[in-house]
Protein backbone atom coordinates (compact mmCIF):
# COMPACT_ATOMS: atom_id res chain seq x y z
CA UNK A 1 0.00 0.00 0.00
CA UNK A 2 1.50 3.32 -1.07
CA UNK A 3 1.91 6.27 1.23
CA UNK A 4 -0.46 9.05 0.23
CA UNK A 5 1.77 11.68 1.85
CA UNK A 6 4.75 10.56 -0.21
CA UNK A 7 2.70 10.71 -3.39
CA UNK A 8 1.49 14.25 -2.56
CA UNK A 9 5.00 15.51 -1.83
CA UNK A 10 6.36 13.95 -4.98
CA UNK A 11 3.92 15.91 -7.12
CA UNK A 12 4.27 19.16 -5.19
CA UNK A 13 6.25 22.17 -6.37
CA UNK A 14 9.68 23.04 -5.02
CA UNK A 15 8.34 26.01 -3.09
CA UNK A 16 5.63 23.91 -1.42
CA UNK A 17 8.18 21.22 -0.68
CA UNK A 18 10.44 23.67 1.12
CA UNK A 19 7.53 24.87 3.28
CA UNK A 20 6.48 21.30 4.12
CA UNK A 21 10.02 20.34 5.03
CA UNK A 22 10.44 23.41 7.21
CA UNK A 23 7.26 22.45 9.07
CA UNK A 24 8.60 18.91 9.50
CA UNK A 25 11.83 20.35 10.84
CA UNK A 26 9.92 22.32 13.46
CA UNK A 27 7.93 19.24 14.45
CA UNK A 28 11.08 17.16 14.80
CA UNK A 29 12.62 19.83 16.99
CA UNK A 30 9.60 19.60 19.26
CA UNK A 31 9.91 15.81 19.38
CA UNK A 32 13.60 15.96 20.24
CA UNK A 33 12.93 18.43 23.05
CA UNK A 34 10.23 16.20 24.54
CA UNK A 35 10.59 14.04 27.68
CA UNK A 36 13.01 11.14 27.79
CA UNK A 37 10.13 8.66 28.11
CA UNK A 38 9.63 8.81 24.35
CA UNK A 39 12.97 7.02 23.88
CA UNK A 40 11.59 3.92 25.66
CA UNK A 41 9.42 2.95 22.70
CA UNK A 42 10.11 -0.05 20.52
CA UNK A 43 12.87 -0.38 17.92
CA UNK A 44 10.40 0.23 15.09
CA UNK A 45 9.55 3.67 16.44
CA UNK A 46 13.25 4.40 16.98
CA UNK A 47 14.00 3.52 13.37
CA UNK A 48 11.13 5.76 12.23
CA UNK A 49 12.44 8.59 14.40
CA UNK A 50 15.93 8.11 12.99
CA UNK A 51 14.55 8.18 9.47
CA UNK A 52 12.51 11.29 10.15
CA UNK A 53 15.50 13.07 11.73
CA UNK A 54 17.59 12.28 8.66
CA UNK A 55 14.84 13.58 6.43
CA UNK A 56 14.58 16.70 8.57
CA UNK A 57 18.33 17.28 8.28
CA UNK A 58 18.15 16.99 4.51
CA UNK A 59 15.11 19.25 4.46
CA UNK A 60 16.85 21.91 6.52
CA UNK A 61 19.85 21.79 4.19
CA UNK A 62 17.63 22.13 1.11
CA UNK A 63 15.76 25.00 2.75
CA UNK A 64 19.03 26.81 3.44
CA UNK A 65 20.14 26.25 -0.15
CA UNK A 66 16.82 27.61 -1.40
CA UNK A 67 17.18 30.71 0.77
CA UNK A 68 20.71 31.28 -0.56
CA UNK A 69 19.46 31.04 -4.13
CA UNK A 70 16.60 33.42 -3.30
CA UNK A 71 19.01 35.89 -1.77
CA UNK A 72 21.32 35.62 -4.75
CA UNK A 73 18.67 36.50 -7.31
CA UNK A 74 17.42 39.48 -5.28
CA UNK A 75 14.30 39.64 -3.12
CA UNK A 76 11.10 41.53 -3.62
CA UNK A 77 10.22 44.79 -1.86
CA UNK A 78 7.81 43.09 0.51
CA UNK A 79 10.39 40.58 1.76
CA UNK A 80 12.20 41.00 5.06
CA UNK A 81 15.22 43.26 4.61
CA UNK A 82 16.91 42.32 7.92
CA UNK A 83 17.86 45.91 8.69
CA UNK A 84 19.18 44.93 12.11
CA UNK A 85 22.17 43.26 10.46
CA UNK A 86 23.35 46.59 9.02
CA UNK A 87 23.92 48.11 12.46
CA UNK A 88 27.61 48.50 13.29
CA UNK A 89 28.88 49.07 16.80
CA UNK A 90 31.18 52.00 17.40
CA UNK A 91 34.37 52.00 19.44
CA UNK A 92 32.47 52.51 22.70
CA UNK A 93 30.23 49.50 22.00
CA UNK A 94 27.07 51.48 21.19
CA UNK A 95 25.12 51.94 17.98
CA UNK A 96 24.42 55.65 18.47
CA UNK A 97 26.69 56.60 15.58
CA UNK A 98 24.81 54.28 13.22
CA UNK A 99 21.44 55.60 14.39
CA UNK A 100 22.58 59.20 13.92
CA UNK A 101 23.78 58.32 10.44
CA UNK A 102 20.40 56.82 9.55
CA UNK A 103 18.59 59.90 10.85
CA UNK A 104 20.90 62.20 8.93
CA UNK A 105 20.40 60.15 5.77
CA UNK A 106 16.64 60.47 6.21
CA UNK A 107 16.90 64.24 6.52
CA UNK A 108 19.04 64.53 3.42
CA UNK A 109 16.73 62.28 1.44
CA UNK A 110 13.85 64.60 2.28
CA UNK A 111 15.84 67.69 1.27
CA UNK A 112 17.29 66.48 -2.02
CA UNK A 113 14.79 67.64 -4.61
CA UNK A 114 14.80 69.25 -8.01
CA UNK A 115 15.63 72.95 -7.57
CA UNK A 116 15.13 73.95 -11.20
CA UNK A 117 13.22 77.26 -11.34
CA UNK A 118 9.81 76.61 -12.88
CA UNK A 119 6.71 78.68 -13.45
CA UNK A 120 4.29 77.73 -10.70
CA UNK A 121 0.85 78.86 -9.71
CA UNK A 122 1.47 80.51 -6.35
CA UNK A 123 -2.18 81.60 -6.08
CA UNK A 124 -3.91 78.31 -5.45
CA UNK A 125 -7.53 77.28 -4.90
CA UNK A 126 -7.51 73.83 -3.31
CA UNK A 127 -10.33 71.56 -2.17
CA UNK A 128 -9.27 69.00 0.46
CA UNK A 129 -11.48 65.89 0.44
CA UNK A 130 -11.45 63.54 3.45
CA UNK A 131 -12.77 59.99 3.33
CA UNK A 132 -15.33 59.58 6.13
CA UNK A 133 -16.54 56.11 5.09
CA UNK A 134 -16.42 52.90 7.10
CA UNK A 135 -13.12 51.93 5.45
CA UNK A 136 -11.40 54.58 7.56
CA UNK A 137 -12.10 52.58 10.73
CA UNK A 138 -9.26 50.17 9.90
CA UNK A 139 -6.34 50.11 12.34
CA UNK A 140 -3.47 49.43 9.94
CA UNK A 141 -2.47 53.07 10.48
CA UNK A 142 -2.35 53.84 14.21
CA UNK A 143 -4.54 54.62 16.01
CA UNK A 144 -6.98 54.38 13.07
CA UNK A 145 -7.01 55.67 9.53
CA UNK A 146 -9.75 58.11 10.48
CA UNK A 147 -8.02 59.69 13.48
CA UNK A 148 -4.63 59.79 11.81
CA UNK A 149 -6.11 61.48 8.75
CA UNK A 150 -7.80 64.13 10.88
CA UNK A 151 -4.53 64.85 12.68
CA UNK A 152 -2.52 65.08 9.48
CA UNK A 153 -5.24 67.21 7.90
CA UNK A 154 -4.87 69.82 10.64
CA UNK A 155 -1.10 69.85 10.17
CA UNK A 156 -1.59 70.11 6.43
CA UNK A 157 -3.83 73.17 6.76
CA UNK A 158 -1.20 75.00 8.82
CA UNK A 159 1.64 74.02 6.49
CA UNK A 160 -0.41 74.85 3.40
CA UNK A 161 -1.04 78.43 4.47
CA UNK A 162 2.55 78.74 5.70
CA UNK A 163 3.85 77.84 2.25
CA UNK A 164 0.99 79.41 0.28
CA UNK A 165 -0.21 82.46 2.24
CA UNK A 166 -2.13 84.00 -0.67
CA UNK A 167 -4.08 80.84 -1.50
CA UNK A 168 -7.59 79.62 -0.65
CA UNK A 169 -8.65 76.26 0.82
CA UNK A 170 -11.91 74.37 1.30
CA UNK A 171 -12.68 71.01 2.94
CA UNK A 172 -15.18 68.35 1.82
CA UNK A 173 -16.00 64.85 3.07
CA UNK A 174 -17.25 61.54 1.64
CA UNK A 175 -19.83 59.64 3.72
CA UNK A 176 -22.88 57.42 2.99
CA UNK A 177 -22.37 57.77 -0.76
CA UNK A 178 -22.71 61.56 -0.52
CA UNK A 179 -20.40 64.55 -0.48
CA UNK A 180 -20.64 66.71 2.65
CA UNK A 181 -19.32 70.23 3.02
CA UNK A 182 -17.03 70.63 6.03
CA UNK A 183 -15.75 74.19 5.50
CA UNK A 184 -16.17 76.77 2.75
CA UNK A 185 -13.42 78.20 0.60
CA UNK A 186 -11.43 80.57 2.79
CA UNK A 187 -7.95 81.87 3.47
CA UNK A 188 -8.27 81.63 7.25
CA UNK A 189 -6.67 78.41 8.61
CA UNK A 190 -8.51 78.69 11.93
CA UNK A 191 -11.89 78.09 10.30
CA UNK A 192 -10.71 74.90 8.62
CA UNK A 193 -8.98 73.52 11.71
CA UNK A 194 -12.07 74.03 13.87
CA UNK A 195 -14.23 72.35 11.23
CA UNK A 196 -11.88 69.34 11.05
CA UNK A 197 -11.75 69.07 14.84
CA UNK A 198 -15.55 68.87 14.93
CA UNK A 199 -15.34 65.57 13.00
CA UNK A 200 -13.38 63.82 15.74
CA UNK A 201 -16.37 62.71 17.90
CA UNK A 202 -18.14 61.26 14.85
CA UNK A 203 -17.60 57.74 13.55
CA UNK A 204 -16.87 56.92 9.91
CA UNK A 205 -19.69 55.13 8.15
CA UNK A 206 -21.13 54.30 4.75
CA UNK A 207 -19.44 54.18 1.36
CA UNK A 208 -17.48 56.92 -0.41
CA UNK A 209 -18.52 58.44 -3.73
CA UNK A 210 -15.82 59.92 -5.92
CA UNK A 211 -18.25 61.21 -8.54
CA UNK A 212 -20.44 63.15 -6.10
CA UNK A 213 -17.37 64.61 -4.41
CA UNK A 214 -15.73 65.67 -7.65
CA UNK A 215 -18.97 67.29 -8.82
CA UNK A 216 -19.27 69.27 -5.58
CA UNK A 217 -15.60 70.28 -5.75
CA UNK A 218 -16.05 71.38 -9.36
CA UNK A 219 -18.98 73.54 -8.31
CA UNK A 220 -16.92 75.14 -5.53
CA UNK A 221 -14.05 75.90 -7.92
CA UNK A 222 -16.23 77.02 -10.82
CA UNK A 223 -16.26 80.73 -9.94
CA UNK A 224 -12.65 81.00 -8.80
CA UNK A 225 -10.52 83.46 -10.82
CA UNK A 226 -8.62 82.10 -13.79
CA UNK A 227 -5.26 83.50 -12.66
CA UNK A 228 -5.09 80.89 -9.88
CA UNK A 229 -4.85 77.12 -9.96
CA UNK A 230 -7.83 74.81 -9.38
CA UNK A 231 -6.92 71.68 -7.46
CA UNK A 232 -8.67 68.82 -5.69
CA UNK A 233 -6.75 66.75 -3.12
CA UNK A 234 -8.46 63.50 -2.04
CA UNK A 235 -7.64 61.14 0.84
CA UNK A 236 -9.16 57.83 -0.29
CA UNK A 237 -9.19 54.89 2.11
CA UNK A 238 -11.64 52.55 0.39
CA UNK A 239 -11.20 50.19 -2.55
CA UNK A 240 -14.43 51.12 -4.33
CA UNK A 241 -16.65 54.09 -5.05
CA UNK A 242 -20.45 54.20 -4.95
CA UNK A 243 -21.28 56.52 -7.86
CA UNK A 244 -24.76 57.38 -9.20
CA UNK A 245 -23.64 57.76 -12.83
CA UNK A 246 -20.75 57.58 -15.25
CA UNK A 247 -17.65 58.93 -13.52
CA UNK A 248 -15.80 59.25 -16.84
CA UNK A 249 -18.17 62.06 -17.84
CA UNK A 250 -17.21 63.83 -14.62
CA UNK A 251 -13.53 63.38 -15.46
CA UNK A 252 -14.12 64.99 -18.86
CA UNK A 253 -15.72 68.02 -17.21
CA UNK A 254 -12.76 68.30 -14.82
CA UNK A 255 -10.35 68.31 -17.75
CA UNK A 256 -12.44 70.94 -19.53
CA UNK A 257 -12.48 73.16 -16.42
CA UNK A 258 -8.67 72.71 -15.92
CA UNK A 259 -9.03 71.18 -12.46
CA UNK A 260 -6.14 69.07 -11.23
CA UNK A 261 -6.77 66.08 -8.97
CA UNK A 262 -4.30 64.43 -6.59
CA UNK A 263 -5.17 61.32 -4.58
CA UNK A 264 -3.54 59.47 -1.68
CA UNK A 265 -4.71 55.89 -1.23
CA UNK A 266 -4.60 54.19 2.16
CA UNK A 267 -5.42 50.62 1.10
CA UNK A 268 -4.12 49.74 -2.38
CA UNK A 269 -3.92 51.10 -5.89
CA UNK A 270 -7.26 51.63 -7.59
CA UNK A 271 -7.43 51.88 -11.39
CA UNK A 272 -10.00 54.68 -11.50
CA UNK A 273 -7.92 56.81 -9.11
CA UNK A 274 -4.86 56.52 -11.32
CA UNK A 275 -6.99 57.34 -14.36
CA UNK A 276 -8.38 60.46 -12.69
CA UNK A 277 -4.92 61.76 -11.75
CA UNK A 278 -3.42 61.01 -15.16
CA UNK A 279 -6.18 62.62 -17.22
CA UNK A 280 -6.43 65.77 -15.10
CA UNK A 281 -2.63 66.30 -15.04
CA UNK A 282 -1.84 66.00 -18.77
CA UNK A 283 -0.96 62.31 -18.56
CA UNK A 284 1.19 62.57 -15.42
CA UNK A 285 0.02 60.08 -12.77
CA UNK A 286 2.63 61.06 -10.17
CA UNK A 287 -0.13 62.80 -8.22
CA UNK A 288 -1.48 59.40 -7.15
CA UNK A 289 0.31 57.62 -4.31
CA UNK A 290 -0.43 54.85 -1.83
CA UNK A 291 0.77 55.25 1.75
CA UNK A 292 3.01 52.47 3.06
CA UNK A 293 3.11 53.58 6.70
CA UNK A 294 2.42 56.57 8.90
CA UNK A 295 5.61 58.42 7.97
CA UNK A 296 5.11 57.84 4.25
CA UNK A 297 1.51 59.00 4.57
CA UNK A 298 2.64 62.25 6.13
CA UNK A 299 5.27 62.79 3.43
CA UNK A 300 2.69 62.33 0.69
CA UNK A 301 0.35 64.66 2.57
CA UNK A 302 2.90 67.45 2.90
CA UNK A 303 4.17 67.17 -0.67
CA UNK A 304 0.95 68.81 -1.84
CA UNK A 305 1.94 72.05 -0.09
CA UNK A 306 4.35 72.75 -2.97
CA UNK A 307 2.57 74.55 -5.83
CA UNK A 308 2.34 72.51 -9.04
CA UNK A 309 4.31 73.54 -12.09
CA UNK A 310 2.39 75.32 -14.82
CA UNK A 311 2.00 73.07 -17.85
CA UNK A 312 0.45 73.38 -21.29
CA UNK A 313 -1.45 70.41 -22.65
CA UNK A 314 0.20 69.35 -25.93
CA UNK A 315 -1.92 68.72 -29.01
CA UNK A 316 -0.96 66.77 -32.15
CA UNK A 317 -1.05 69.90 -34.34
CA UNK A 318 0.79 72.19 -31.91
CA UNK A 319 4.37 73.16 -32.76
CA UNK A 320 7.10 74.25 -30.37
CA UNK A 321 6.75 77.89 -31.44
CA UNK A 322 2.99 77.84 -30.83
CA UNK A 323 3.48 76.18 -27.44
CA UNK A 324 6.04 78.82 -26.45
CA UNK A 325 3.72 81.60 -27.63
CA UNK A 326 0.79 80.15 -25.67
CA UNK A 327 2.91 79.99 -22.53
CA UNK A 328 3.91 83.63 -22.83
CA UNK A 329 0.46 84.93 -23.72
CA UNK A 330 -1.26 83.21 -20.80
CA UNK A 331 0.89 85.15 -18.31
CA UNK A 332 -0.60 88.50 -17.35
CA UNK A 333 -0.39 91.08 -14.60
CA UNK A 334 -2.65 90.84 -11.58
CA UNK A 335 -3.83 93.83 -9.60
CA UNK A 336 -3.47 93.50 -5.81
CA UNK A 337 -3.98 95.78 -2.86
CA UNK A 338 -1.68 96.15 0.14
CA UNK A 339 -3.76 97.72 2.92
CA UNK A 340 -2.44 98.71 6.33
CA UNK A 341 -3.96 97.81 9.65
CA UNK A 342 -6.18 100.59 11.01
CA UNK A 343 -7.74 101.33 14.38
CA UNK A 344 -11.09 103.05 14.74
CA UNK A 345 -10.64 106.58 16.18
CA UNK A 346 -13.76 106.14 18.29
CA UNK A 347 -14.65 103.52 20.85
CA UNK A 348 -17.65 102.44 18.80
CA UNK A 349 -16.88 99.28 16.79
CA UNK A 350 -17.83 99.08 13.15
CA UNK A 351 -18.99 96.11 11.06
CA UNK A 352 -16.61 94.36 8.70
CA UNK A 353 -17.66 93.72 5.12
CA UNK A 354 -16.63 90.05 5.13
CA UNK A 355 -18.42 88.66 8.22
CA UNK A 356 -20.61 91.57 9.40
CA UNK A 357 -19.04 91.36 12.86
CA UNK A 358 -18.32 94.46 14.98
CA UNK A 359 -14.65 95.26 15.58
CA UNK A 360 -12.43 98.28 16.10
CA UNK A 361 -9.47 97.05 14.07
CA UNK A 362 -9.25 95.84 10.50
CA UNK A 363 -7.88 96.52 7.04
CA UNK A 364 -9.35 99.06 4.62
CA UNK A 365 -9.47 98.14 0.95
CA UNK A 366 -7.08 100.32 -1.02
CA UNK A 367 -9.64 100.70 -3.85
CA UNK A 368 -13.09 101.08 -2.29
CA UNK A 369 -12.29 101.51 1.42
CA UNK A 370 -14.30 98.50 2.63
CA UNK A 371 -13.20 97.03 5.96
CA UNK A 372 -12.08 93.39 6.22
CA UNK A 373 -10.98 91.43 9.29
CA UNK A 374 -8.01 89.36 8.16
CA UNK A 375 -5.60 89.07 5.26
CA UNK A 376 -5.16 87.62 2.71
CA UNK A 377 -8.64 87.83 1.28
CA UNK A 378 -10.64 89.28 -1.58
CA UNK A 379 -12.59 92.47 -1.06
CA UNK A 380 -16.31 91.58 -0.74
CA UNK A 381 -17.27 94.83 -2.48
CA UNK A 382 -14.90 95.28 -5.43
CA UNK A 383 -13.20 91.87 -5.59
CA UNK A 384 -9.65 93.21 -5.27
CA UNK A 385 -7.11 90.75 -3.85
CA UNK A 386 -5.85 92.12 -0.54
CA UNK A 387 -2.56 90.82 0.86
CA UNK A 388 0.49 91.93 2.81
CA UNK A 389 3.95 92.30 1.33
CA UNK A 390 5.22 89.52 3.59
CA UNK A 391 2.67 87.12 2.10
CA UNK A 392 4.01 87.74 -1.38
CA UNK A 393 7.60 87.37 -0.20
CA UNK A 394 6.86 84.01 1.45
CA UNK A 395 5.39 82.69 -1.80
CA UNK A 396 8.37 83.85 -3.84
CA UNK A 397 10.67 80.98 -2.81
CA UNK A 398 8.60 78.49 -4.81
CA UNK A 399 9.63 80.22 -8.04
CA UNK A 400 13.34 80.34 -7.17
CA UNK A 401 14.04 77.56 -4.66
CA UNK A 402 17.20 77.42 -2.59
CA UNK A 403 19.91 75.30 -4.21
CA UNK A 404 20.80 71.97 -2.64
CA UNK A 405 23.96 72.06 -0.57
CA UNK A 406 26.70 69.56 -1.44
CA UNK A 407 28.64 67.25 0.86
CA UNK A 408 32.12 68.26 1.99
CA UNK A 409 35.02 65.80 1.98
CA UNK A 410 37.67 65.71 4.68
CA UNK A 411 40.26 67.29 2.36
CA UNK A 412 37.91 70.14 1.49
CA UNK A 413 37.16 70.68 5.18
CA UNK A 414 40.90 70.80 5.93
CA UNK A 415 41.50 73.36 3.21
CA UNK A 416 38.58 75.60 4.25
CA UNK A 417 39.51 75.14 7.95
CA UNK A 418 35.87 75.14 9.00
CA UNK A 419 35.66 74.30 12.68
CA UNK A 420 32.02 75.21 13.35
CA UNK A 421 28.75 75.77 11.55
CA UNK A 422 28.48 79.21 9.95
CA UNK A 423 24.87 79.63 11.10
CA UNK A 424 24.58 78.10 14.59
CA UNK A 425 28.30 77.87 15.53
CA UNK A 426 28.02 74.20 16.52
CA UNK A 427 31.41 72.52 16.39
CA UNK A 428 32.20 70.14 13.53
CA UNK A 429 34.09 66.85 13.95
CA UNK A 430 37.84 67.34 13.87
CA UNK A 431 39.62 66.62 10.62
CA UNK A 432 41.71 63.41 10.78
CA UNK A 433 45.47 63.82 10.69
CA UNK A 434 45.86 62.12 7.32
CA UNK A 435 43.76 64.90 5.77
CA UNK A 436 45.17 67.83 7.74
CA UNK A 437 47.79 68.53 5.06
CA UNK A 438 45.24 68.96 2.32
CA UNK A 439 46.76 72.21 1.02
CA UNK A 440 50.16 70.75 0.23
CA UNK A 441 49.22 67.21 -0.82
CA UNK A 442 47.67 66.26 -4.14
CA UNK A 443 43.96 66.01 -3.64
CA UNK A 444 43.22 63.54 -6.40
CA UNK A 445 42.61 60.73 -3.91
CA UNK A 446 39.29 62.03 -2.72
CA UNK A 447 35.98 61.40 -4.39
CA UNK A 448 34.99 63.72 -7.21
CA UNK A 449 37.08 65.24 -9.96
CA UNK A 450 39.61 68.03 -10.23
CA UNK A 451 41.05 68.72 -6.81
CA UNK A 452 38.64 66.31 -5.16
CA UNK A 453 37.43 68.88 -2.67
CA UNK A 454 33.68 68.49 -3.09
CA UNK A 455 31.45 66.15 -4.97
CA UNK A 456 29.72 67.58 -8.01
CA UNK A 457 26.20 67.11 -6.74
CA UNK A 458 24.41 66.21 -3.52
CA UNK A 459 24.09 62.47 -3.18
CA UNK A 460 23.78 61.62 0.50
CA UNK A 461 25.25 62.27 3.91
CA UNK A 462 28.60 63.97 4.38
CA UNK A 463 31.49 62.05 5.94
CA UNK A 464 32.74 65.24 7.58
CA UNK A 465 29.34 66.40 8.86
CA UNK A 466 29.64 69.56 6.75
CA UNK A 467 27.45 70.81 3.91
CA UNK A 468 28.58 73.60 1.61
CA UNK A 469 26.55 76.19 -0.23
CA UNK A 470 27.73 76.29 -3.86
CA UNK A 471 27.40 80.10 -3.98
CA UNK A 472 28.99 81.44 -0.79
CA UNK A 473 31.05 78.28 0.02
CA UNK A 474 30.09 78.45 3.70
CA UNK A 475 29.82 75.22 5.69
CA UNK A 476 26.73 74.27 7.68
CA UNK A 477 25.54 71.37 9.83
CA UNK A 478 22.70 69.04 8.89
CA UNK A 479 20.19 70.77 11.19
CA UNK A 480 20.86 74.16 9.62
CA UNK A 481 20.61 72.51 6.21
CA UNK A 482 17.12 71.28 7.05
CA UNK A 483 16.08 74.59 8.63
CA UNK A 484 17.32 76.66 5.69
CA UNK A 485 15.60 74.52 3.05
CA UNK A 486 12.31 73.86 4.84
CA UNK A 487 11.67 77.01 6.91
CA UNK A 488 13.83 80.00 5.95
CA UNK A 489 14.33 79.15 2.25
CA UNK A 490 17.41 81.37 2.22
CA UNK A 491 21.11 80.73 2.76
CA UNK A 492 22.50 82.51 5.86
CA UNK A 493 25.91 82.85 4.21
CA UNK A 494 24.54 84.46 1.07
CA UNK A 495 22.31 86.80 3.08
CA UNK A 496 25.19 87.89 5.33
CA UNK A 497 27.17 89.42 2.46
CA UNK A 498 30.01 86.90 2.33
CA UNK A 499 29.86 86.76 -1.47
CA UNK A 500 30.11 90.54 -1.76
CA UNK A 501 33.11 90.60 0.58
CA UNK A 502 34.90 87.97 -1.50
CA UNK A 503 34.18 89.91 -4.68
CA UNK A 504 35.54 93.11 -3.16
CA UNK A 505 38.70 91.31 -2.07
CA UNK A 506 39.19 89.96 -5.60
CA UNK A 507 38.72 93.43 -7.07
CA UNK A 508 41.36 94.87 -4.74
CA UNK A 509 43.99 92.40 -6.00
CA UNK A 510 46.07 93.17 -9.09
CA UNK A 511 46.18 89.60 -10.34
CA UNK A 512 49.49 88.71 -8.68
CA UNK A 513 48.16 88.24 -5.19
CA UNK A 514 49.08 91.80 -4.16
CA UNK A 515 46.76 94.68 -3.42
CA UNK A 516 46.28 97.46 -5.92
CA UNK A 517 48.93 100.16 -5.58
CA UNK A 518 51.62 97.80 -4.33
CA UNK A 519 54.38 97.25 -6.88
CA UNK A 520 55.88 93.82 -7.44
CA UNK A 521 59.47 93.30 -6.42
CA UNK A 522 61.79 93.29 -9.44
CA UNK A 523 65.06 91.47 -9.70
CA UNK A 524 67.48 94.17 -10.91
CA UNK A 525 70.48 91.89 -10.72
UniProtKB/TrEMBL annotation:
Positions of the VWFA domain: 125-266
Location of this chain's protein in the cell: Nucleus
Keyword Protein biosynthesis: yes
Acidic residues composition-biased segments: 16-32, 442-452
PROSITE patterns: VWFA, ZINC_FINGER_C2H2_1
Region of interest (Disordered), ranges: 1-77, 308-330, 435-459, 506-525
Keyword terms of this UniProt record: DNA damage, DNA repair, Initiation factor, Metal-binding, Nucleus, Protein biosynthesis, Transcription, Transcription regulation, Zinc, Zinc-finger
GO molecular-function term, one example from the UniProt record: zinc ion binding
Superkingdom per UniProt: Eukaryota
Zn finger (C4-type) location: 365-382
InterPro entries: C1-like_sf (IPR046349), Ssl1-like (IPR007198), TFIIH_C1-like_dom (IPR004595), TFIIH_SSL1/p44 (IPR012170), VWF_A (IPR002035), vWFA_dom_sf (IPR036465), Znf_C2H2_type (IPR013087), Znf_RING/FYVE/PHD (IPR013083)
Family indicated by similarity: Belongs to the GTF2H2 family.
Protein name, as recorded: General transcription and DNA repair factor IIH
Amino acid sequence: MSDSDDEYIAHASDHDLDEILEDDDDVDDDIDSGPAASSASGPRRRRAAAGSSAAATAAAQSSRDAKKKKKGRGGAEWEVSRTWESLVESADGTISATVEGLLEAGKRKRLLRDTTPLQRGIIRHLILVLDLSSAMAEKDLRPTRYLLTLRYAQEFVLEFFEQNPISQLGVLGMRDGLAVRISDMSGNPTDHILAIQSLRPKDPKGMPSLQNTLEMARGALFRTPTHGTREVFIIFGALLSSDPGDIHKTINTLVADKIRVSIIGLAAQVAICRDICARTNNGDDSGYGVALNEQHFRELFMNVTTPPATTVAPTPTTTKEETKTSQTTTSSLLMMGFPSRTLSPTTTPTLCACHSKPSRTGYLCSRCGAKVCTLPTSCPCCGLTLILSTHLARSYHHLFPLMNWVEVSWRRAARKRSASCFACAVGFPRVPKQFSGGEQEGAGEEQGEGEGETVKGPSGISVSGRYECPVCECHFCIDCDVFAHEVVHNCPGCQSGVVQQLQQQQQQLNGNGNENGVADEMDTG
